[in-house]
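Lecture 7 notes: from sequence to structure.

We start with a single chain of 224 residues. Read the sequence below before looking at the structure.
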Amino acid sequence: MAPVSGPAPERPRERLAARGPAALSDAELVAVLLDNGRAGLAAIDLSRALLERFGRLSGLMEASSSDVARVRGVGEARAARVAAAREMARRVLAEQMQARDSLASPSAVRSYLRLRLQHLGQEVFWVVFLDAQNRVIAAEELFRGTLTQTSVYPREVVKRALAHNAAGVILAHNHPSGVAEPSFQDQALTRALAESLALVDVKVLDHFIVAPGAGLSFAERGLL
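Now the structure, written as tokens:
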């Protein structure tokens, strides 16, 4: 008598339909996003290759489309799906930032800034402009390149704050080195910006340093 085989393992899409997205692993979620594999390579195998290449889900979400497309078996069409998912996540977080009090619920601001900054290869400086109720008016990249007190111009930050009629700002920049600790220059720059903005009644509420897999808040560290 032939042995009775067990049920075939569920595919990621079947598991999602039966159990919901929270039941899926990172690799299974990416496999659903990729939709299909290629000859000799299933979608779940492609997703595992992507996670191995970029280290984690956040690394994949911040990788450039060209880097994703170069992974064996992925190609431009599947890389475009990853890019679309990344942009959707950014837009959702941007909507959440604008709908909430950024001090009472800072997680959306932090998540948005991490998604924007944590895997960039060069330093950038962002400012989140807030109204009197601490709601986000706008978030803008103002400077790019090596950040020092002389390359981030306080007068330009003040001009943008006045243009937005902002009552407060959250500063942010990234450390591509992976270390989220503030340097002496970071602290000096923060003080210079806080002093300049105070002259026009705009308060610096926080300064985030973002690094791959790490982040630091000046306010929580007691540096403001």
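Residues 102-221 form a domain with the Cytidine Deaminase; domain 2 fold (CATH 3.40.140.10). Keep this in mind for problem set 3.
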